[in-house]
Design a protein that fits this description.
It comes from Amphilophus citrinellus (Midas cichlid). There is one protein chain. 25% of the residues lie in helices and 23% in strands. The longest helix is centred in the middle third of the chain and has 18 residues, at 152-169. By secondary structure, the protein is α+β, with helices and mostly antiparallel strands. It has one domain (11-17, 24-34, 46-250): Alpha-Beta Complex (Cathepsin B, Chain A), CATH 3.90.70.
Length: 251
């Protein structure tokens, strides 16, 4: 009798070494869900669809025991991008390391000289520019930063075209944030068809006990969202990890 294939694990433990919850030694291991968009139906069939390639972990508010509601969404999206690099790329030996904790991210930005010493331990936000610095610092992966001015035409054409090209070439998740719409979000895919353009959005703002993948999808924490539903008066920045570079290859 043939054996049934063993399903890939849908979650993974992260050992923070006591640094995840603001340095607390009480919370060292966190279980996070993998690739939470899996099984989510596309907006329709006939379309151009470009998606993330490979696995990632879903980082969100409070997932390591630190209550970062109201300020930590950018950090969580950076952690999700970092988890993709860890799972899918052959990184230089001196840059092969686990996903950094929030304190480690802040300290890295201080060490690089981007932030003053008072930034460590603060509740200050970070955006796509800081994300590019952090991923370069920890993983030696450069990032392409794309500025998209507010307005339907820029979002529908510039952002969508850039995302299609990125997912087809690199396959890594993208961080997106803006000014009026300053809520950080992960972008896992882009869909273009007769119903318009959609982004596959991973929202880091969930806070609470771990939910099943299907429940996260039902509640919209990972969902296809119309580009036209974005704030049309906000500019947006995209941080796109460039994984096909010297010394860094997708596995």
């Amino acid at each position: 009798m043939d054996e049934k294939p063993v399903a890939a694990p849908s979650e993974e433990e992260i050992d923070w070494g006591g640094s995840g919850a603001g340095g607390s030694k009480n919370i060292k291991v966190t279980t996070l869900l993998k690739s939470v968009h899996t099984g989510l139906p596309n907006p329709s069939d006939a379309a151009k669809c470009s998606l993330i390639k490979g696995e990632y972990l879903y980082f969100h508010y409070g997932c390591d025991g630190q209550d970062d509601r109201g300020w930590g969404c950018g950090y969580r999206t950076v952690q999700t991008l970092a988890s993709w690099l860890c799972h899918n790329c052959s990184l230089p030996k001196n840059h092969s390391r686990p996903v950094p904790s929030l304190p480690e991210i802040q300290q890295a930005l201080v060490t690089m000289g981007d932030k003053a010493g008072s930034f460590s331990g603060s509740r200050e936000w970070i955006g796509t520019f800081e994300a590019s610095l952090v991923l370069g610092y920890f993983y030696d992966v450069p990032c392409k930063l794309v500025h998209v001015r507010g307005g339907g035409a820029e979002l529908e054409h510039v952002a969508v075209a850039e995302l299609h090209q990125h997912f087809e070439k690199h396959g890594s998740p993208v961080m997106m944030g803006g000014d009026r719409d300053n809520a950080s979000k992960g972008i896992l895919g882009v869909w273009s068809g007769d119903k318009g353009n959609y982004l596959l959005v991973l929202d880091p703002h969930y806070y609470g006990c771990q939910l099943e993948r299907t429940e996260l999808q039902r509640r919209g924490w990972v969902a296809w969202k119309r580009v036209s539903s974005l704030d049309q008066s906000s500019f947006y920045n995209l941080c796109m990890p460039q994984t096909i570079t010297k010394g860094t290859r997708v596995k």
